[in-house]
């Protein structure tokens, strides 16, 4: 499947808010993804990091505990409200924002942590997301992604993305530093994910 330019007007009414209100969020494990540990190794020194599509904020809080200044964005107000309640003492910021349509301040972040964002928005919107990531990051900014490159796709979302699609999407603006299987994963995702470490060119 080739990537398309898609429609940047991503529908903020997509059922994410309804699903959070109804408690129908099976992607939430009640804790941060195990590969946060590898992201902390990759990011290294304290940085300002964005987590798009942060849901209940578990990854945001884990990155903050690792010494980083972290913002979590999600288009679902219910998810953001819950994240603020869960992690009120964590010193992190949660905003109701859709990365695809938000007015983005350029060079605002040193790093981006991507976990279950691209798989939620689908291929029509990947190009817009990649462009927004590049705008948000400072030159040389770091991008860490956990992507479903080995997933059998049935009735998405989540959408899988092949390694070739990842390279097509990111290599024009990002240097791909490495990719590998995570050392640890949630049980139902074992064998489906790969980690991607990148740096914004320029």
TrEMBL record:
Q: Which InterPro entries does the UniProt entry name for this protein? A: SAM-dependent_MTases_sf, TPMT
GO terms for molecular function, please? S-adenosylmethionine-dependent methyltransferase activity
Q: Does the entry feature the keyword Nucleus, yes or no?
A: no
Q: Which keywords has UniProt assigned to this entry?
A: Methyltransferase, Phosphoprotein, S-adenosyl-L-methionine, Transferase
The organism sits in which domain of life? Bacteria
Query: Some GO term, biological process aspect, for this entry: which one?
Result: methylation
- Its name, as the record gives it, is Methyltransferase domain-containing protein
Q: What is the native source organism of this protein?
A: Puniceicoccus vermicola
């Amino acid at each position: 499947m080739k990537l398309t330019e898609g429609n940047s007007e991503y529908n903020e009414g997509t059922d994410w808010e309804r699903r959070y209100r109804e408690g129908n969020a099976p992607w939430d494990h009640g804790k941060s993804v195990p590969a946060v540990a590898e992201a902390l190794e990759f990011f290294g020194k304290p940085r300002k990091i964005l987590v798009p599509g942060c849901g209940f904020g578990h990854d945001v809080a884990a990155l903050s505990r690792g010494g980083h200044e972290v913002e979590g964005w999600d288009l679902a107000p219910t998810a953001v409200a819950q994240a603020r309640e869960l992690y009120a003492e964590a010193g992190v910021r949660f905003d109701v924002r859709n990365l695809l349509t938000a007015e983005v301040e350029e060079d605002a972040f040193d790093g981006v942590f991507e976990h279950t964002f691209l798989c939620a928005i689908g291929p029509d919107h990947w190009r817009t997301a990649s462009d927004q990531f590049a705008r948000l990051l400072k030159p040389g900014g770091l991008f860490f992604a956990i992507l479903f490159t080995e997933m059998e796709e049935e009735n998405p979302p989540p959408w899988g993305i092949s390694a070739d699609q990842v390279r097509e999407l990111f290599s024009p603006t990002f240097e791909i530093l490495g990719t590998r299987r995570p050392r640890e994963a949630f049980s139902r995702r074992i064998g489906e994910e790969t980690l991607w470490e990148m740096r914004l060119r320029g």
